[in-house]
Amino acid sequence: ESRRSESESRRSESESRRSENESRGSEAGRRLSEAAEGGEEGNDKQPEDDNAKELNNANAINEAVRDNRLVNGQGGEKKKNNKYDNIYMRDAYQVLRTLCRMTMQPLPEDPADPRSHEMRSKMLALQLLLSVMQNAGPVLKTHKTFAQLIKQLMCVALSKNGVSPDPGIFEISLSIFLILISNFKVHLKMEIEVFLRDIFLSILESPSSTFQHKWFVMRALAKICADPQIIVDIYLNYDCDMSLDNIFERLVNVVSRIAQGHLTEWGLTQHQENLLQYKGMECLVSILKCLVEWSKDMYKRPELPSNDKPEEEKQEEEVSLNRSGLLVRSGSMSSLASGLTDDPEEFENIKKQKSILEQGIEKFNLKPKKGILFLQERGLLGTSPGDVAKLFHTDERLSKTRIGEVLGDEAENCKEIMGAYVDQLDFSGLDFVKALRVFLAGFRLPGEAQKIDRLMLKFAQRYFEGNPQLDIFASADTCYVLAYSIIMLTTDLHNDQVRNKITKQGYIRMNAGINDNKDLPQEYLEAIYDEIATNEIKMKYDKAELQRVNQSRGADPAKKNAYSETMINLGRNALSMMEGACKKETIFTSASHASHVRPMLMLTWTPFLAVFSITLQDSNAEELVAMCLDGFRCAVRVSCIFNTGLVRSAYIQSLARFTMLNVNSGFSEIKPKNLETIKTLIAIAFTDCNYLEESWYDILKVISQLELAQLIGTGVKTKFLEKETMMDKKLVSTLQQTLGNSANQNVIVAVDRIFTGSPRLDGNAIVHFVTALCKVSQEELNNPVTARMFSLQKIVEISYYNMGRIRYEWSKIWHVIGDHFNRVGCSPNEEVAVFAVDSLRQLSMKFLEKGELPNFRFQKDFLRPFEHIMKNNDNSVIRDMVVRCIAQMVNSQAKNIRSGWNNIFSVFHIAAADRDQAIVELAFQTTASIFDQYFNAIGDSFQDAVKCLSEFACNAAFPDTSMEAIRFIRRCANYVADNPEHFTGDDDSNQEAVWVKGWFPVLFELSCIINRCKLDVRTRALTVMFEIMKTYGHGYKESWWKDLFQIVFRIFDHMKLTEQTPEQYKQQRKEWMTTTCNHALYAVIDVFTQHYATLAPLLPELLNLTQWCVKQDNEQLARSGMNCLEQLVIGTGHQFREDCWGLIIDTITQVYASTLPSELRNWKPSLDIVDQVSIHSDASSDYIDNTQISVSRQDRTLFQNLQIGCLVQTEIIQTIDNIIFFPANSAKEDAQIDPFEFQNEAQTEGMFGYLSTKQLFQIVECLFESHNFAKGFNMDIDQRNILWKYGFKGKTLPNLQKQETNSLLCLLRILYKIYCDDTRVDDWPKTEIYLHRLTVESFEYYIMLEDEKRRGSWSRIVALMLKKMMLLDNDRFTVLLAKCYDQICSIIAQNNTWELQLIISKFFQRAKNSLLHLDPGA
Q1: What is the value of pTM for the model shown?
Q2: Which of 129, 278, 700, 879 is spaced 20 to 30 Å from 723 by Cα?
């Protein structure tokens, strides 16, 4: 107790003396500063009494010297030195120099007594220096003389005192350093690096340094970190300098480790550890605040209406980044500028290169060759040995051991590097030992003797060449042996493991005879021995090795002098580095650009995040938590300003995790620090809302979980807990207590402010916000337990809030929201879908109230979700709701709807195909009301309206609606005809728009109805379609008709491209061809005939269509095809050109060739059917003759097609006859007995006169071939019997009698018509040959016929030939009579009909007149 009280009394006495000295030093320093400044003022303004002023200044200096017990000569000397501007500056300089030297006076090695003269003198000098620097004016700060003094003397003094074990000295030294870095940094670039790197940061990194020293350093760093200018300048001048250490990065890393806590290896108490941790956290947060402050000009606050922002909120934002109580300094922003400009891009490039260089150095310190190659590949190191050697000399970060390995390696390139390395050293003028020290200071000697030998040889050579004036050495060999012996001497004298040390005489004997067999002077060798014994040759300070040792060394409490040894080493290294730094002239760059902050953030964001995250997770201390959250806010702010998405996302996600709002884990217990984290996250969302981008998702996810926690905490939604356990009940109680108090209710208000404040977000930010909100909403709705609609409700709210934005921004917002409503509206959860549709309805009604200008499409985009939901949601309730919403819009906002009509008709188009009667009826009623009341307002949606009506017409479940829809389509056609200006707009000449926007949609949709609907509906649509064409077709252009007939041809394509199954296809095909195709074909021909002048170019396509119809396996359609061809040619043939007739003839010949039933002549039953017939034949021969045998389905189909082919052949013949001779003329001719009477009657001419003889003979060839085919088949009794037995043509033997006779009759008429046409005289010879041969053959075939039925058919042919012969003139009649007279006479003998008998009678009368040369008609 007595010793304790004595110690306390000494401590109090020491503190009183210290305070007294501080006050005296402060006053003396103030006077000294005033004296120095007085001289400067005297130059600007002469005082009234110069002598008095000089006397006062001198007295002030004398008093200062007297107070500090200094004796420094006479202070009143008036003689000026060129070094000083005036006498006062000289005096001040001398006093300042004296104080610096006093601070460097050594203290006793024993623990210093605070009352000792040395200690008091050192303390007073330091306090005087501190006072002088604190009160320094412009002269002291800027004059070169003082700058040199501070640089060369004061910094060296501080480097000594900065490692003092005495806390008082150390603290004052730190204070002086803070003033230097604040006010004199432009002059002390290299010195500041040494202070920070080799003293202060090393003390923090050293495990053996005391808590007091660490605490003083942390306090000093806290002040440095609070100045934005200093922080940015440190980064710019050190981290962006290729040759200097990364001071800023190292400072952050060291302080981050301290701020994380867990410093037990340093031997600290918990209280001391907490203090350091708190101060470290304070430093880190201050750095981030400096970054925010430095870049504040680049930050744009979200704009808010003034009435939306209370005054207290404004004040809160001003101090939001200063919650820890450290106000950010901005005064140093006006620091003195240097001569260099701080181009951000240039410094960033330098930093990138430096990072690459550091990677190379790191590789070199592990594997030298790889490091050298790495730097060379990236262009940071030359490939020559000199470049590598220069790097070894200049970069102190390289491991001295690795340099020694490279220099001693026996590889050729390493030898070259070693040679270049030694050659770059200058040993001239140096004594041998000093030169050897210089040589060995740059690397660590390798352990192998051969490597040492090579190095010593090169050193000896270089030294001998550089000192030719020395006569002591006979050759370089002497230098080599001496150098080797000095190395051995050093090892022997200073190695503790060597017990028997070499003596001086022994060393002299060891070097005997080395100088060309002579001895070196004994005095010289003795001097070398003494110098090595007292001063060991040591390697230069190796930062790489020291860093490795410091990291691996821990605190050793049992070692008393651990700290002393550490401080001694630090002091020695720092003094060495400081002395070197004082000799270097460098340029300090003062930062001014805010862009420097971005690379600073990218460099340090990971340690910041690690510290804040670990502290926030492990600590519950309010102050630490508050500082961590401040750090988060600052880091997020800076990352937002510079748009570093990765950094921003990392900090936001980390904050989101610390809210502990995680429903998947059942909501861990929420502590006050978690609530503060929530508040911080919400505050970030409110203040940095325009910069968050994808990070909005994490924030909105937390807000969603917060709402869920509130629901659970209030007991409203306990069903969200997966298991109702006792723990869950306890959790509910905890949540109720945590979230229920009034203070935390402010969080809910803050959350609401985020959504109500969404209008202040800029155009891009609102899109990111909405996108994230939709994503969170989708996750809420996909909850497997129970879906929530919190975020969906917020989407609706922000849609209301932001509806006043410009349309460009709103369209981007709605693009996201609309897609979300598309998904939500199709949700299988009916409650969710109903809410979505109802919300859409409300938003749409609000949006439609604003109206829309012409030619814009905002309404179309807004209403598109209704269309999507209607298309993709099968729930009848939702579909009915959508239709009702659209109907309500039409009824209430029709006057404001513009582009929205497209979506309305699209919705009704989808509803039209529904099976629900209520949906279809409501949709059609609304559509009908639109046509009745707002038809003129639908604008460009006319096509959609017609398409909608078409869909109604195609709904087979409601035929009445279908017919009514067709009636509306017919009404649309009337509207197009009456209001063409509706489609042309202001340009009346744009008639194409009338077709594209008006007529084409109407006719196209009618064709769709024809292709899709049942018989009654498609028949009605077909009738309306062709009625429109006939009524308004006179106004159609040729190009319109081409498009129209493409539509018409689609009707027939329906059967060509059907995808039905074979059975369905066969049944529908038959019905379709019999009804619709038949009807459509006649209608097409009718329209084509009516408008042939315009439609002539479409004749080939129409003929192809007709040909296709004829070729189908449908008897009625085939007959209709030929009838339509006949109708087409008869109606329009008189307008045909030559090429058109060629198309007609080609069509006829192609139809003939494709429908000729040639299989009739060669069909044979299959083998299995033949076997069946044979069995029955053996049983009863009469069975085969009287019974038909069934065949396969394939053969039955073939027989059916052959029958249709036979019918078509007959129709072709009749069509040819009707076309050439006009219908019924041939029948009348056959009925007349007297050919002259028929000839004299007025007959309607056919198309014979429009056909060339060549075309007629093409037809004749077809007819003749058809005749021969039928004739041959009729004569083949066996084949006919086979076909009949197997079911072809019913009860009688099949025959082609009608084809046989009609084809020959038509052929004969054509030939005789040509033979009697005076305009075709040139074709008579060919025709005559044809007629003569055919007449004779026909008469002979008639004579040989035995079947009465066939003779009756052929009697028509004979009668026609006789009548045609009678009409010939006498000469040609006589010639032909001579050819067939015998056959005619034979015919008389046959059993002829009475008509033929009368014709024969008249023939011979004609023959008499011919022989008597009378008129043929007499």
Answers
A1: 0.71
A2: 700
